[in-house]
Amino acid sequence: MSRVIDDVREFRTVAGLAAVAGFVDGVGFVALGGFFLSFITGNSTRSAVMLVGGDLGAVAVGLSIVATFVVGVIVGGVVGAVADRRRRSAVLATVAVLLALAGVVHLLVHATLPSALVLTAGMGALNAAFARRGGAVAVTYMTGMLVTAGLRVADRILGRGTATWLQPLGLWTALTLGAVAGAAAYRLLGFSAPAIALAVVVLAAGVAYRAGQ
Question: Residue 37 and residue 123: Cα distance in Å, rounded?
Answer without folding.
Answer: 7
